[in-house]
Request: fold
Amino acid sequence: MTESKKNKQVNVILLITVLVIVLCIIWTIVAFRKSAGQRVLIIQENQVIQEIDLASAENQEIKISSADGGYNLIQIQNHEICISEADCPDQTCVKTGILRSESLPIVCLPHKLIIRFAEEGETS
Amino acid sequence: MKLKKLTELALLTALALIIFVIELHFPDILPIPGVKLGLANIITVYAIFQYQPSETAMLVACRVILGAICSGNMSALLYSASGAAMCLLGMIIISRFLNPEYLWLCSILGAIFHNIGQILAAMAVMQSMAVLSYLPVLILSGSIAGLFTGLCAQAVLKRMHRTEKNS
Reply:
């Protein structure tokens, strides 16, 4: 491959990279907007196991057991939902904190658990 | 395989594993699954430009499996393995079109491929599109980490060439 041809290819690859990154910045900004929805779905192994309306939900704790014997403790307080405790190895779901955005769900990969806002018109 | 090359690859695998284990003790930067510095990829990117694709693949496979054993987090093996495979494939193809001066660019793209692989694995495991929304965040953090590891690997490559010339 000649040098000039390689230089041209560098420009193309550079352009694609910059484009991907810019797209991701826009996507992230859109994703981090606070959700207006109030209905929350708790999904385990791709099945909705509970639907909660945050606007009317009282403060409570829900314990969800997973297939491998582990658990996630879901806490609802002041109309906000988060995972307060879990015995998964990475603890990412706990560190994610309160569910805020429609497109950024709370995910616990080891227990295959997802907590996310319900889309409009979606029912369990 | 020549003994010298085997020794070099073994040394690089050990180095990558040490970096990986040290990185395990770093506190999490962002509370999002999959966000990591990925310092061990300094070795991977370096190997891409220094060795044959098959040799690099062996190095990465050893590092990923040994890394999972060392971290004790076997459930993460699937994600890191699919991420590493995508990353490796992408970087091997891209490195053919790039001179070593653009190693950092190759590293950024490798990080992006890694994140795509991770998300694909997560989508397969969870059977849900919900995790897809993590992709842009992962790609952004991955690009920054990829640029850093790429620049590190580039510095290593430059110095290694100088050492080889002198000896």
About this structure: Chain B has a mean pLDDT of 89.
